[in-house]
Specification:
With about 550 residues, this protein is α+β, with helices and mostly antiparallel strands. The chain has 20 helices and 23 strands. It has three domains: about 270 residues, Spore Coat Polysaccharide Biosynthesis Protein SpsA, Chain A (Alpha-Beta Complex); about 100 residues, no CATH class; about 55 residues, no CATH class. The strands form seven sheets. The chain has an eight-stranded mixed sheet. β20 and β21 form a beta hairpin. The chain is globular. It is found in: Membrane. It is a single-pass type II membrane protein.
């Protein structure tokens, strides 16, 4: 049967259409494969990262400046994969009912999830999820509580029919909580030994203390030279009334032998010190008194590894750089989470040093100057000599004033403005090689004046010891570099803070914290950092080829 002309035209049109589609496909196929497929692959990868088994997430610590220290993406699904074996080591955490729900949950979400066992003591029995908090004061005899105002908070907490936060504001109850806290230390020793006897080491920490477990376990087992069968008491040493004690907030360690001896061999010690507590300021001091009185054991100094500061207040610089860090204090929930995240996402598993905290958590936030900020500079101060200005300064700053007879011309006017204050540290800056003029009849090295090409006779004095008329240019450069490297290492001014005609500088560098804004320029807080001096010091220090483990002092 013959097809109609109309039908033949439709068939021809259909054939041409199919050929056109095939030709178009052949033409665009290479570029389609190259772009569309890769885009789809990236999209698929992103989807699997967030919804797949790997749980790869963006690391919020990864930013400009931290590329070499932390990974950009991390699998957070197995946080305990690299956690150390803590067999024989027990953590004992102390908290209070007014703060427990603010501070403890973050620990439970971070490092405590990796500990097979631990104890949490407070001044009230509480429950956070599946974790129990024990009332360490429940066994304190009534004669120690009766007519003792220090226990008023303890009684008020028990009378609260709703949440503690509803009845009691932790900020307003801080003083009462502090007074009650001192009674927890000796009962905590007794209950710890009764509930978890036989451990090698007992680590005691506050709810705002962060423990670097990998460092602690490695140090105890391989670097400390300590024997848990001996009576050992160590931490960050403080003094009150001439008595040395381990600062509770920094964390401290007792060997199992010492804890057993203290509790089993001295019945009645807890009751004695509960009564004594009414006349003492601090529980960590009373613990030291009991250990010396009954065990003849004094604290062994382990600072700066056990540290009372946190990343933003650590005094980075000499003595706080190549040293490993074991604990930090005054850590809020966000800071605890950040440091845990840093430990999780580090690119290396070597011993974590203080310098590592600076490079990842602090350095990216450093800048030349911040308004309404206190970077905690207080080593050397320059205060307006006017009696009224002197009267406004606090005693600590007045004690840190440099004698006018010892001041340079720059230091004498440092109190006048933040800019003047900044120049105190800038005077210690070492010129860079590209700012120097090399050569001359005696091969002198003469620094140029900043922002000009003219030689600076004043700066040339710093390089006189590098002059050598007989030396080759290369040798002279090397000699100059050695001299300048030593000068960079020995600098004593890294940063400043200016406020109310008071200029103070620091021999270390810290980030610090915000201050309340002021409409008066004179009373406004201004902080600054000599970034060139800081970076010069870091470059001169080089890599920490040896870990500076603390040699324990008796």
């Amino acid at each position: 049967m013959l097809a109609s002309p109309h039908s033949r035209r439709l068939r021809l049109f259909g054939g041409f259409t199919v050929l056109a589609i095939i030709a178009t496909y052949i033409h665009i196929r290479p570029s389609w494969r190259q772009t569309t497929y890769e885009y789809a692959a990236d999209l698929s990868s992103s989807v699997s990262n967030y919804f797949g088994r790997e749980q790869m997430y963006n690391n919020t610590l990864y930013q400009q400046g931290t590329e070499g220290t932390v990974v950009q993406y991390h699998n957070f699904s197995n946080p305990c994969a690299n956690f150390p074996d803590t067999d024989g080591v027990l953590l004992v955490m102390k908290t209070g009912a007014t703060e427990a729900f603010d501070k403890v949950p973050t620990h439970l979400l971070t490092s405590l999830q990796c500990l097979p066992d631990f104890l949490i003591f407070s001044d009230m029995e509480q429950q956070i999820g599946k974790y129990h908090i024990y009332d360490v004061l429940a066994g304190v005899e009534e004669k120690a509580k009766a007519h003792n105002d220090d226990f008023d908070l303890y009684r008020d907490q028990k009378d609260c029919p709703v949440s503690q936060k509803t009845c009691l504001d932790a900020r307003e109850e801080g003083h009462r909580a502090w007074n009650l806290d001192k009674y927890k230390f000796l009962p905590m020793m007794e209950q710890t030994w009764r509930m978890r006897p036989g451990r090698d080491w007992y680590i005691f920490a506050e709810a705002d203390t962060y423990v670097f477990w990998a460092n602690v376990v490695y140090w105890l087992r391989t670097q400390s030279g300590l024997n848990p069968k001996e009576r050992v008491y160590l931490g960050s040493r403080s003094f009150i009334g001439g008595t040395p004690f381990a600062h509770g907030g920094s964390g401290y360690i007792l060997s199992g032998t010492l804890l057993r001896h203290l509790i089993d061999h001295h019945p009645g010690i807890v009751q004695q010190y509960n009564i004594k507590g009414a006349h003492e300021c601090c529980g960590d001091l009373m613990l030291a008194q009991a250990l010396e009185e009954y065990e003849n054991v004094k604290i062994r100094q382990a600072w700066p590894m056990f540290n009372g500061e946190k990343p933003s207040t650590l005094p980075y610089g000499p003595g706080h750089w190549c040293e490993p860090i074991l604990t930090m204090h005054h850590m809020n929930a966000e800071e605890i989470s950040n440091v845990w995240q840093f430990e999780q996402t580090r690119k290396t598993d070597r011993t974590l040093l203080i310098k590592d905290l600076y490079e990842t958590l602090i350095a990216p936030n450093m800048q030349v100057k911040r308004q309404d900020w206190d970077n905690l500079s207080d080593d050397v101060c320059y205060i307006n000599p006017d009696p009224a200005a002197q009267a406004r300064a606090d005693d600590h700053r007045k004690r840190r004033q440099k004698k006018e007879s010892d001041m340079t011309d720059t230091e004498k006017v440092a109190w006048k403005s933040p800019e003047n204050c900044a120049r105190v540290c800038e005077e210690e800056d070492v010129p860079d090689e590209e700012d120097l003029i090399w050569g001359g009849s005696r091969q002198k090295i003469v620094p140029r004046e900043p922002n000009s090409g003219e030689p600076s006779p004043a700066l040339a004095l710093d390089t006189e010891k590098a002059e050598d008329s007989d030396a080759s240019d290369a040798a002279m450069r090397e000699q100059w570099h050695r001299a300048m490297n030593e000068k960079k290492k020995s600098r004593t001014c890294f940063q400043y803070t200016w406020h109310d005609e008071q200029c103070c500088t620091a021999k270390s560098f810290k980030l610090g914290a915000p201050k309340a804004k002021s409409g008066n320029d004179k009373s406004r807080w201004v902080s600054g950092w000599d970034l060139k001096g800081i970076n010069d010091w870091i470059d001169a220090m080089g890599e920490c080829t040896q870990v500076a483990w603390k040699k324990l002092e008796a």
